């Protein structure tokens, strides 16, 4: 969703804000803007469209000042026009507000302000916050504390006031805000990628809190205005990891980072010496382990696909019945909760609104809460009792890649940990630990595949308007993920299906030359899958397959085989997804799309 940056310090604020927004643009890119407090009050610059439009305006209309805020927008209320871009200001133009989230009492507040004769300049809910702050008296922090109870919904807000040129005030309920503690300067941002290059000392703002940020100090207040003490944390990410590092796109860089990301995730959770899982690291209390009878996995999008794979792994290794839910459905479906249940929120960002709400619901119902998450200190991280960090490092490309494969690894480790805790460990565990340690090499092998094969695959997919992705068993979620990747960045329609279901409908789509992408590595159901592929071939489909190079039976059916090495069946999803990521990437590049910032999408979905 929207990206936010605020700065107060000694440097000119415009370059700091633009630099921060460039690093945040992956969160939303419909429009952008900034407010700077200069000698003559607040000056605002806004532009519809991508950040480069704002950069051009800033070049032609320079602003000077050392305090300010910036915003890159993913539209919720109002079209992505300049008038609806943030910052929004109060009636007198003295208070500027940037906001990520949605005010649920938007209509009531808007009516109230209009009835009071306030002239509104935009369709946004954000302007309402600015107007409410403008109608209060006192310093900005006092105004914020009085307006807070009037706001319903989810918001992360950063605001400045011309009469207080050395202060930035931030508050949140839902979407995240992090404060970066610098030397002689402090920053506020919607996520750490915007500030990592200036400081690694951060304080996360909690829901309901207000931060009063000045160049030399940061005060945290609770919603009643009482002081809150929270020491800064030091981030272990370094700034170089949010650069493209010579790659054309972040997505490609992140695909190629997968061997290291997997290696780091495996190392973080496995004790190689004892070839065992570090159970303690998961933080599951022993008494809860004894009571554990069921598992629910909740997530959205790509993370939901990793849960679908996780179900196979968890049930196979722990014997615990495991259900998978879209977080957006779980939170409203009245699931059967209880203290015999482990609920795992799987989320790259740790900030996805639906996943957090599903987790909160589960905790309120007595379940033990765990998270598999890529961002230490994020909301899901702080919500959960048991935590597994995926060590993917910052993921900037909107289409998730390395977060997905490390989630698969983390869920496997979680399954091994639970298996061990339940006294089930045997030789299979040792074998899986060895295989997990070998996995980065297998992914490296996939990444070395002859480019010519991908060129052929790209040609086939980019000339079609629709395609079908098929898989069976533990590989069927990989078919879903492959189709999602293609849809997201190439805007071509693709449907993922369990191959056995194909005859019950989707086969009607198949005509001459219709592309069918099959995830056909060697599992117990490969023969069944091959039968399904024969059926689509008989109707003229062009079959592309992911399979081991020695699988002659697949090569006989497929027009093209994207090869992957043999790994343990439970780990095949990790290697099998990589060719599908590369295929989607190549098709999107071929079609000339903006791979890292696809149409209508945003990296972190912090509203429902
Ligand atoms: C797809 C993608 C999204 C996310 C989803 C959940 O490539 O990135 O589908 O997986 O929005 O996000 P997280 O994992 O941050 O909860």
Give an overview of the whole structure.
The chain has 3 domains: 239 residues, Glutamine Phosphoribosylpyrophosphate, subunit 1, domain 1 (4-Layer Sandwich); 204 residues, Glucose-6-phosphate isomerase like protein, domain 1 (Rossmann fold), CATH 3.40.50; 140 residues, Glucose-6-phosphate isomerase like protein, domain 1 (Rossmann fold). Helices cover 36% and strands 23% of the residues. The chain is built from 19 helices and 27 strands. The strands form 5 sheets. It has an 8-stranded antiparallel beta sheet, with helices on one face. Helix 13 runs antiparallel to helix 19 and helix 14 runs parallel beside helix 19. The protein starts with a strand and ends in an 18-residue tail after the last helix. Fructose -6-phosphate binds next to helix 9. The site of fructose -6-phosphate has 14 residues, from helix 9.
SSE arrangement:
Blueprint: E1 3-8, H1 13-24, E2 31-38, E3 41-48, H2 51-60, E4 67-73, E5 88-89, E6 95-103, H3 106-115, H4 126-135, H5 140-147, E7 153-161, E8 168-173, E9 178-181, E10 186-189, E11 201-204, E12 210-213, E13 218-221, E14 227-228, E15 233-234, H6 250-256, H7 258-269, E16 270-271, E17 276-277, H8 286-291, E18 294-299, H9 301-318, E19 322-326, H10 327-330, E20 341-347, H11 353-364, E21 368-373, H12 379-383, E22 386-389, H13 402-421, H14 427-447, H15 451-462, E23 466-471, H16 476-490, E24 493-498, E25 515-519, H17 526-538, E26 542-547, H18 552-557, E27 560-563, H19 572-590
Helix pairs in contact: 4-5, 7-13, 7-14, 9-13, 9-16, 13-19, 14-19, 15-19, 16-19
Bound molecules: fructose -6-phosphate.
The site of fructose -6-phosphate has 14 residues, from helix 9.
